[in-house]
Amino acid sequence: MAISEKQLQDILDQYPSKVQKNRRKHIFIKNGEIENQVIEANTRTIPGIITNRGCAYAGCKGVVLGPIKDMVHIVHGPIGCGYYAWNTRRNKAHSDDPTDNYINYCISTDMQESDIVFGGEKKLAKVIDEVMDIFKPKAITLSATCPVGLIGDDMGAVAKVAEEKYGVQVLSFSCEGYKGVSQSAGHHIANNILMEKVIGTSTEEKAPAKFPINLLGEYNIGGDGWEVERILEEIGYHVVSVMTGDGSYDDIKKAHTAELNLVQCHRSINYIAEMLEVKYGTPWLKVNFIGIQATCETLRNMALYFNDEELTKNTEAVIAKELSRIEPLIDQYKKICDGKKAFCFVGGSRGHHFQNLFAELGIETLLAGYEFAHRDDYEGRHVIPTIKTDADSKNIPHYMPEADEKRFRLKVSPERLEELKAIIPLSEYKGMRFDMAEGSIIVDDLNHFETEAFIKLLKPDIFTSGIKDKYVIQKMGIPSKQLHNYDYSGPYAGFNGAVQFAKDISMSFASPTWNFIAPPWKDQPLLEGKVTEEGVA
Ligand code: CFM
Predict the structure, then answer these.
(1) Overall pTM > 0.90
(2) What are the percentages of helix, strand and coil residues in the chain, rounded to 5?
(3) How far apart are CA 466 and CA 444, in angstroms?
(4) What's the pLDDT score for residue 472?
(5) Exposure on the CB side of residue 529, measured as CA atoms within 13 A
(6) Is the CB of 369 under 6 A from ligand 1?
(7) Domains plus CATH for the chain?
(8) Does 482 score more than 70 pLDDT?
(9) What average pLDDT does the chain have?
């Protein structure tokens, strides 16, 4: 179901002209006849607009660092920043030694007014002392929130003193919320320091088993990472590290021993993937474990990379076994899902990844987008050289290591690498637009007004999005499934995840609840109006 440019313009016409001009650049209707459909992305949200985005601190501490279970993550700031990031993302972690798993804790310096006036460094040092006294972790991270940067606390200096005092790594992250236009800035800040100070610090030179890989950009939401690891290990891969779902500091230190890096979430971790290639010569492969066919394709691409007869055989055997097991389970749900329409708007990767799973269930994606992704996540990596660096992106330090003299080693010959690049997505991501149907809508940083306007126009059967808009959508009589934390469910990745997702959304479709909700446009007289430069007309 395509919409016309006129229908899109009618929605935008409801904005004041300046806002309209801005938002127009963030939305397009897919048209395959146009070679470059440029979208504006990773720029500031217009002040006052209700966005779904988070902040740089959320991207650094919440997304990338938080899931590392055996480090203690201290939030330097007022208590709210810590409290509201406490266990809401459902990045699960399990440890054989429960005393070395801090995932359930929220540790904050609880800055008060007097700390803002007189400085919070002493309090931060005291919290580190307390953490060492109570937990004795092998490493600590310190994440800055907005006021820390505004008053100029020197977290790096506090970290240095603590490192000398306790002999453990204390990493300081200047990820103040305002450091970027969204959480994307925080991903980059976290990537830089993990690469500079943690990855490669193990003395291990070789992985202990064949086919060692790192799984990057997998955060084990609702157990996704566990399902992916189950499949990979059954085939015969050795997972060196996962960054960072159910992640371990000790494992991340060994990431240089992998022969291939898998990139699930391109947005949050493509920096580390690129840096590992430059420093150690390890290529990265864009993978997708969301959706049955996507999972099969990913496994086959990995087998092509390693080019080992036994591994290829195992790959096909596991795929065949899993498919015959799950097909009867999923078929019952396909009947319920078939013919439905979806909107899929998530942070930076899932807005794309889940479209495969929808398609497999017979659901068409009419509209999709990301909260904070960059142009390459929409248009493909080939646009990276053309992306302008603006004042906001200059806030984030650029870090790129050099090749490691001792450890840099080409994992496959340059000729073979070129051959492989022609058939599998090595160092490549084609972006969301490539996979979307003609006439579908692609929106960057969708806001609440547009959410309502597009729902009224296209009336989707399901809207997968986040907590900030979930209940607005449901009050319009449309089921909404959170794809950030999967509500209370999961996993949704891999084979078992596909079945779980199909079951969950089928339950939504089958629920009679929606019949009891009259969306606002059904029983309220609509007042038509227009806001112009001069006022309300
Ligand atoms: Fe990557 Fe993520 Fe996502 Fe993301 Fe996030 Fe997330 Fe997300 Mo919420 S790392 S970009 S910053 S896949 S927390 S696990 S669901 S917005 S689409």
Answers:
(1) yes
(2) 45, 15, 40
(3) 15
(4) 93
(5) 9
(6) no
(7) 56-178 (3.40.50.1980), 212-330+379-431 (3.40.50.1980)
(8) yes
(9) 96
